[in-house]
Amino acid sequence: MSYKNFPMVPRVVFGRGSFNQLGEILAPKRLNINAPFIFLVDDVFKSDSWLTSRIPLAYNDQIIFVSAAEEPKTEQVDELVESIILKFNERPSGIIGIGGGTLLDLAKAVSIMLTNKGKAQDYQGWDLVKNKAIYHVGIPTISGTGAEVSRTTVLTGPDKKLGINSDFTPFDQVVLDSELTQSVPKNQWFYTGMDCYIHCIESLEGTYLNTFSQSYGDMALSLCEEIFLDDDLSVTESQEKLMMASWHGGMSIVYSQVGVAHAMSYGLSYLLGIKHGIGNCIVFDQLEEFYPEGVKVFKEMKAKHNIVLPQGICSKLNDQELDTMIDISLGLVPLWENALGKNWKRTITRKKLKALYLRM
Amino acid sequence: MSYKNFPMVPRVVFGRGSFNQLGEILAPKRLNINAPFIFLVDDVFKSDSWLTSRIPLAYNDQIIFVSAAEEPKTEQVDELVESIILKFNERPSGIIGIGGGTLLDLAKAVSIMLTNKGKAQDYQGWDLVKNKAIYHVGIPTISGTGAEVSRTTVLTGPDKKLGINSDFTPFDQVVLDSELTQSVPKNQWFYTGMDCYIHCIESLEGTYLNTFSQSYGDMALSLCEEIFLDDDLSVTESQEKLMMASWHGGMSIVYSQVGVAHAMSYGLSYLLGIKHGIGNCIVFDQLEEFYPEGVKVFKEMKAKHNIVLPQGICSKLNDQELDTMIDISLGLVPLWENALGKNWKRTITRKKLKALYLRM
């Protein structure tokens, strides 16, 4: 038996307003005046001077605003990398992702692809990255995905949605400033928070679970229940706790894996472009069979926050489209194996998946 | 307000038997065949081939057995460093500490002092270390101190007991193999486990607490209660959970601090050489006034495991000796400030401390 030697984020700042420290954090990492810091920023902040005016720009540092309306794509990573290479004579000093899971994953992937040849799609999988990435910093502005601590960057490629899982993927630095999450729209807050909740359920109910992952999962789960079911937290407390839940939820996956919801949601996302958070919710809502208690509590949370999920999103799909989704989903072997054990194929057939998708 | 940019252990393996992976973990870190790995190993393992035969030795790597009968001293660090410098032509490739808090702290301190001039005592304090330490690995064989994740190495020097707190102090790699804790004697298991429990209480009840530290503290505390009060854990589960409790308890101190028990226990340790774990227990047992609920539960744990603490250890001390302990204790300003707020001196007088010490 060999255990994973997990790479943890080596530096973390936590605190309300800690975003103001970004300048002093980055300064010692500047390689030279021709090696810029590139800030990949969610374009919802484009005219938000409260945030953008505090991005510490010097020399030829650059902000690139990126829409998070769609899930991040390998092609998008390749384009960003090409534009950075063409524009600057030197490799950047660092890539800083400011946003939700999409921006964080893009920042990770761009920092990897600046030092590794070929296309991002070549590295989708496990431990295919050869060279250390460029210094990269993650600054979440919405909590739940766990992208700030994970060793993956999940990308949709030409033929699959799959992460670049590697020891070089995790951020070198994370800034956890819950104040940055204050303007998240309610639905998105819920969907992304539920990404964390669903991580926890899938990790804690999975066959891969060990004591390390369990302790993080228990913590994140109890924070989620406090945030989404209790009424006694202040707004600030709730934002700070969700930031920590996301962190611990991400850590819970270290020795574990996600499960059925993620495996099926990747299919929705690949075919229909449905965003990860809401996709997970749509799938998880139908998974009583696999996670009875988790789904029950999920439905309570949904009701408490008056969240209405889209219905019938798969009802008009033809067989070929359903097959594509099923193929994507079945390809995620470790997720199924974690969820249902080595003999998962006895439970999960194409027919079964089709029936589940048609309920969504 | 400026928040600490905390250095986390960048690599961690967790798993029963993961000690077997040490060879493959170290191999890529070997600088050259003349730069040895030095293993500082608790001398209780001296004739324990179950452990020592699995220490991967090559070239001129060396095992140095060190007694943990006494708390680690600055002088001891200086001697170890000198002996390593004299014996080898090149700086070591790495220092690996295998043992409890004493061995882990020695490994951290030796790795720092191999790259920093002067004596270890010069660096007791906060952020006095100038140069990056040598690659160092921590492998706990007893759980509770949190030394495996902390950014300090607590040493007794000629005039104080105080940590070398720095960004270079944390381990580069930690191996968490709960099997290594299987032979810990019961009393020591309890005292060291209580170090973790007391960390949590002091952190959670402290004025420095924030949401980051709280979430780790809550997790560690609930693990401690499960381990020391419930009866439904297997031996292996209990060992694994205590290993995680120690880890999370250490993380809880990141943005927090320890408090009254540690501040007073440092005095006992400095003057009487009382080991940290038992010293904390002796002090904490008398701290109802400061931590009523925490002390109540501590007494339940003590009773459940039939632990009898030494009594009257201070009763024969003269005033000068008591003054020395009080001086050491009062010098730990951040601990008092965390415990009781900025105006802690209103509560904590020399007279008050003397009365408390005399009860121990």
CATH class of the largest domain in chain A: Mainly Alpha
What percent of residues of chain A adopt helix (DSSP H or I)?
40-55%
Ends apart, CA distance between termini of chain A: 40 Å
Q: What is the tally of helical segments of chain A?
A: 14
Overall shape of chain A: globular
Strand order of the largest sheet of chain A: 2-10-7-5-3-4
Number of domains of chain A: 2
User: Any guess at the CATH architecture of the largest domain in chain A?
Assistant: Up-down Bundle
Can you characterise this structure?
- 2 copies of one chain form a homodimer.
- The mean pLDDT of chain A is 96.
- Chain A is built from 14 helices and 10 strands.
- Chain A has a 6-stranded parallel beta sheet with strand order 2-10-7-5-3-4, covered by helices on one side.
- In chain A, β8 and β9 (161-165) form a beta hairpin.
- Chain A is α/β, with parallel strands linked by helices.
- The first copy, chain A, folds into 2 domains: 11-181, Rossmann fold, CATH 3.40.50.1970; 186-358, Dehydroquinate synthase-like - alpha domain (Dehydroquinate synthase-like, alpha domain, Up-down Bundle).
- The first copy, chain A, has helices spanning 22-26, 49-52, 74-87, 101-113, 186-204, 211-229, 235-252, 260-272, 276-284, 292-304, 319-330, 333-340, 344-347, 350-359, and strands at residues 5-7, 11-14, 37-42, 62-66, 94-99, 125-126, 136-140, 154-156, 161-165, 173-176.
- In chain A, 45% of the residues lie in helices and 12% in strands.
- Chain A is globular and about 60 Å long.
- β2 (11-14) of chain A pairs antiparallel with β1 (5-7) of chain B, so a sheet runs across the interface.
